[in-house]
Amino acid sequence: MIGLLKKINSSVGREEAVAKELSRLRSLPRYSSGQSNVFGFPMQFSDACTFVVGGREIFQREVYRFEAKRSDLRILDCGANIGMASVYFKRAFPGARVTCFEPDPTLAEIATKNLRANGFTDVDVHAKAVWTADGEVFFEPEGGFSGRIIEDGERRDSEVARIPCVRLRDLLGEPIDFLKLDVEGAEVSILRDCRGYFKNVSRLFVEYHSRVDRPQELGEVLEILKDAGFRYHLKGDFVRRQPFVDRDLMLDWDMTVNIFGEKEEGN
């Protein structure tokens, strides 16, 4: 009985500590950097708001969870941000070979520190964007989840920088157990370029962004995935509560949808 009470008290104490830490994180101004153990292990962050939101999805709800039949998995984390997904993958699959791509050099540095702080010294972190060609692209940093590539014809301002990029389809020549593509609006161009190159990819995650000033392309994205043999599941990320009357935007997006794709048998 005493042991059970100690366990209960410990659990209650942990819950209270987590609630207190979440309250602290929520009180921080946007884009304030810091560190926290709120999810049970050390993590640095660049923006407390996106850290809490992303951490809940990745570490608590485990949206990227999948069953693996072997230990030597191959994972590409494209749009790694501060490395939360890669930390999750390495905690779940210590033997996995994970490669991160994050175009914001500040966030790429934080991702490297987070992986190292948790003992994952074998993860390669590249301060580069994935794109439709090797070379350089214009990139607009944001400090949280919303830094993005500026494509041809889009407005550029003083905050836009030229950063190195690699062609994603050139990385798909080996078996890929999980491909995460969270690239803030560049996903359609990249998926078009990769069309016909997904034969080695078993599972993928894509965050689709609907630009309010452009034609919607979700149908094309789903067609590309269907043609590649994926069966997909859609989960609303930013969606309007009353779509016929609401005109809410997140930046210049009127909708973002998370797409989870897994190969059907025989594909």
Structural features:
2 domains, globular, four-stranded mixed β-sheet, alpha/beta, 30% helix, 267 residues, 27% strand, seven-stranded mixed β-sheet, Rossmann fold, disordered N terminus, single chain
Distance between the termini: 54 Å
Residue share in helix: 25-40%
If classified by CATH, what would the architecture of the largest domain be?
Answer: 3-Layer(aba) Sandwich
What would the principal axes of the Cα set say about the shape?
A: globular
Low-confidence stretches: 1-10
- Average per-residue pLDDT, rounded, comes to 90
CATH topology of the largest domain, by name, is Rossmann fold
Q: Report Rg.
A: 19 Å
Largest sheet: 7 strands, mixed
Strand content: 25-35%
By CATH reckoning, the class of the largest domain would read Alpha Beta
Please tally the helical runs, counting DSSP H or I stretches of 4 or more residues: 6
Kindly report the spatial arrangement of strands forming the biggest sheet. Answer: 5-4-3-10-11-13-12
**Helix and strand sequence:** HEEHEHEHEEEEEEHEHEE
**CATH H-level name of the largest domain... which superfamily?**
Vaccinia Virus protein VP39
Count of strand segments: 13
Number of domains: 2
Briefly note the structural class of the backbone.
alpha/beta
Q: Your description of this structure?
A:
The chain has 267 residues and is of the alpha/beta class. It folds into two domains: 1-62, no CATH class; 68-263, Vaccinia Virus protein VP39 (Rossmann fold, 3-Layer(aba) Sandwich). The protein has helices at residues 2-27, 48-60, 84-92, 105-117, 187-194, 218-227, and strands spanning 34-36, 43-45, 74-78, 97-101, 124-126, 129-131, 135-140, 148-150, 161-167, 178-181, 203-211, 230-238, 253-263. Strand 1 and strand 2 (43-45) form a beta hairpin.
